[in-house]
Amino acid sequence: MAFCTAKIHAATPQSDSTLQVLHWWTSASERKAASLLAARMADEGITWRDAGIPGGAGIGAGKVLKSRVLANDAPEVTQIIGVSIREWADLGFLLELDKVAAANKWNTSFFPTIQNLIQHRKHVVAAPLGIHRINTLFYNKKIFSTLKLSPPENWDELVMVAAKLKAAGLIPLAQSSEPWQVATLFENLILAEGGPEYHRELFVRQNAQAVMDKRFSHALERLRQMKSWMNNPVDERPWTEVVRQFSKNEAAMMITGDWVKGELNDGGFVTDEAFSCTAMPGTGKYHLYSVDTFSMFTNDYSRIAAQEKLARLVATPAVQVDYNAVKGSVSVRRDADPARMDSCARASWNAFAQGATTQAPSLVHRMATDETSKDAIIAVIHRYFIDATVSPSDTQARLVAMYKTFGNNKKQTP
């Protein structure tokens, strides 16, 4: 991002206790989670001025934020996640929350990965809200029970389950051809093929040699095989429509992030009753993660007290429990009580708690790399998915060339 580092100022005067919050929580369950936070803020005397931007994976919100910063009209609070936090902090726009972190003992309350994520040059610049597990397989309990199917734990079992579902006249897998949703499925396959370390080689270190590994071509082949388990044709739909297909018993499984759990529960399709979840086959020990965070823009120093109050509030044990139960995510706190979580949340929290060796930062959700690299990688995978004439070797060659370009650009960056 090429912005000047001059401080920005809000265009419209507001009360010092009013904070505009830019985010991409626009589905029914996400709005409920946002409303919960707004109500907790109101209890603290802070008004939440909503600026929700539609668009899966925050694509639209990112564009809106950049345009507003250029127009000197940045919101006081913004949902910024992953590598994007460091990018904005590098430009000098983010409020340092060191006093809040120290007073509330964030350094011992949060998991180490969360601590690293919210810091930039030894300063805390974001407040964490919740952890999403991206490698989650959701399955319809009634359909599985009727067909006497068990949740698949490895690839061969997944293939067998899909075959039996197709034989019964059912769509095995609910899926959209929207680029970020395709890439989400693919990085699940990468994690299953090579674990967290291989996932990091590919998407964090962007190692061109790793792209030529057989595990990469296997993941591509399996992605194409899975396409035959989906709608024909696989249309481009928002994730909420994919969830709706699953909740109407029109598809037996979904593989995606656990935010869909909040949407299912909100629609009356209840966890551990209508559906349950397991890890993506082959990834049972791993956690492909995305972390929701808020950062505060230093556009109006009169609102620092309110911004710090919000940062403190969202990380408190009580808000963590209530917010994550609605959102479908799990607490960022090490002292959370897994006994108060449903089975899906408990599995997610326990997997994340095992530490860095079991964790993989999601490519699609900005945890692994910068926005430009992310978008370019997703485009290559999406092209392979939608065009049957593109071979795995073509895709590998294209990505290798791209990684070499990324490397050259980094070397030339002062």
Automatic annotation (TrEMBL):
<keyword id="KW-0732">Signal</keyword>
<dbReference type="Pfam" id="PF01547">
    <property type="entry name" value="SBP_bac_1"/>
</dbReference>
<dbReference type="InterPro" id="IPR050490">
    <property type="entry name" value="Bact_solute-bd_prot1"/>
</dbReference>
<keyword id="KW-0813">Transport</keyword>
<dbReference type="GO" id="GO:0042597">
    <property type="term" value="C:periplasmic space"/>
</dbReference>
<dbReference type="InterPro" id="IPR006059">
    <property type="entry name" value="SBP"/>
</dbReference>
<protein>
    <recommendedName>
        <fullName>Probable sugar-binding periplasmic protein</fullName>
    </recommendedName>
</protein>
<comment type="function">
    <text>Part of a binding-protein-dependent transport system for a sugar.</text>
</comment>
<comment type="similarity">
    <text>Belongs to the bacterial solute-binding protein 1 family.</text>
</comment>
